[in-house]
Design a protein that fits this description.
Strand order of the largest sheet: 6-7-8-3-9-10
CATH superfamily: P-loop containing nucleotide triphosphate hydrolases
CATH topology: Rossmann fold
Distance between the termini: 46 Å
Structural class: alpha/beta
Order of helices and strands: HEEEHEEHEHHHEHEHEE
Number of domains: 1
Strand content: 25-35%
Shape: globular
Radius of gyration: 18 Å
Number of strands: 10
Largest sheet: 6 strands, mixed
Number of helices: 8
CATH class: Alpha Beta
């Protein structure tokens, strides 16, 4: 078994999905313009958590999200995904770990117009495994049914509304059954009613799929509805507030 396959198939029953230890990130290192944008970030995110990351523009949220998603590496510190330290992994291993264990939902859906709705949902699987088999296609159709779009599977993304496209992107994010779902302003382009629907969908899937969820949002209604809110200001987490669970 190759190294990256071993990593991707590691025992993923760890309750602690994400752990950051003293994460720092600097740009233009060694130059007069060197700047540190993250100043020692520490937090844990467990499988059962549904958390929000908030903060003003320029606070470092996008930088931190890229590191959490293994799209960028910190300058120093350690990020553990499902108990696995990631700082010394090769790009190939990081890619395998990300594809198998992290789902992404963005403000802009990034659906591929040349492909059908179903093929867009299956894209993460197709990138890794090639042409999907019948079982994989059935799983994709099941996800589309869960987001209320089973009858659109042959359509192209442009034939859907913005809210429907976002629901397709949620199904795509869940297709690998990830342990961690990262959502970057997932309701930012939606009207209030559609935004509420998308948020409730994320919360329902968090419960059904037992994945940890971290939502970056500027909407205080969204952050207050999460079980936890992390506030990032000037590259540091200044508060970590847990909200009472609904009874």
């Amino acid at each position: 078994m190759s190294e990256h396959n071993h990593i991707a198939t590691k025992d993923m029953q760890n309750d602690c999905v994400l752990q950051l230890r003293n994460i720092k990130k600097s740009y233009n290192i060694g130059q007069p313009t060197e700047v540190e944008v993250l100043h020692g970030i520490d937090f844990l995110l467990d499988r059962g958590e549904f958390a929000a990351l908030v903060g003003p523009s320029g606070s470092g949220k996008s930088t931190l999200l890229n590191i959490l998603g293994l799209l960028d590496q910190p300058t120093s510190g350690e990020l553990f995904l499902l108990g696995l330290p990631t700082s010394s992994l090769s790009d190939e291993c990081l890619t395998a770990l990300r594809r198998h264990n992290i789902g992404f939902v963005f403000q802009f859906h990034h659906l591929i117009e040349a492909f059908s709705v179903l093929d867009n949902v299956l894209m993460p699987m197709m990138i890794t495994h090639g042409k999907p088999d019948a079982e994989t296609r059935d799983w994709g159709m099941h996800l589309l049914e869960l987001v209320g779009l089973k009858n659109t599977f042959r359509k192209k993304p442009s034939e859907l509304s913005g809210g429907q496209q976002q629901r397709v992107s949620i199904a795509r994010a869940l297709v690998t059954r990830p342990a961690l779902l990262l959502a970057d302003e997932p309701t930012g382009n939606l009207d209030t009613h559609t935004a509420s629907s998308v948020f409730e969908m994320l919360r329902r899937f968090h419960q059904e799929f037992s994945c940890a969820v971290l939502i970056v949002t500027h909407d205080p209604r969204i952050s207050q509805a999460c079980s936890r809110t992390l506030t990032l200001v000037d590259g540091s987490i200044i508060s970590d507030e847990r909200h009472p669970r609904e009874t």
